[in-house]
Amino acid sequence: MELKLTAKKILVTGGSRGIGRGIVLGLARAGADVVTCYRTEGEAVTSLARELKETGGDHHLVRADVSDPADVDDLIERCRASYGSLDAVVHNAGVISHVPFAELPFEEWQRVVNNNLGGPYLVTQRALPLLSEGGSIVFVGSRVATVGIPLRAHYTATKAGLVGLTRSLAKELGPRGIRVNVVAPGPIQTEEPTPPPVLERYQKMIPLGRLGEVEDVAGVVGFLASDLSRFVNGETINVDGGI
User: Fold this and answer.
1) So what's the pLDDT on residue 3?
2) Which of 178, 186, 189, 144 is nearest to 163 (CA)?
3) Catalytic residue among 38, 83, 121, 155
4) Which of 117, 148, 204, 211 lies 20 to 30 Å from 132 when distance is taken between CA atoms?
5) Which CATH architecture best describes the domain 9-234?
6) Which parts of the chain are coiled coil (predicted)?
């Protein structure tokens, strides 16, 4: 069996950096046409556009804040105008901060919840008319959803919320032939360098002896976006090296 996404039309939120960038490029290289969004202009967006052009396909980069309903409406309209329909929606956009719970301002709680949980709500709801039978919705969650981590109560709560959202939508949208799943990465090495002490600690905790790579996550997302996973629904797949 070979992972093929030829002719698939896929929306990926938050695709200019880190895991999201790896997902966008992985899907495009597997043959999919991809629309992705980003919040801030910069070299990351410029270089991604260049890489996608070199990859080939009908790809689009759109500036959009997934916590803003108007921006989400514009993003979905771009998908409709470009493709007519969507085969998969991948929710990667999100924010994080590190704040002791006793000192966590309500405004920061709202910011993280509105982005990490409100964004998937808005994008999923508005994208539904474009998704037909066989469609796939993939939420990029986090391994911390089930284990917790200090200073990130707000972030962890949103990632745990995605698991509940997935279970409910899998049952509600399943009769329409739409699958809904979560990919939950563990420690992943992105373009941001990992401090040596942190790297050493994770290497001891992870049986495979290394941090994950963005391609490790992208491969699982590609599987869930493909027809190979047509009977996988309502699941959380940990990509954590067995930590």
Assistant:
1) 85
2) 144
3) 155
4) 117
5) 3-Layer(aba) Sandwich (3.40)
6) none
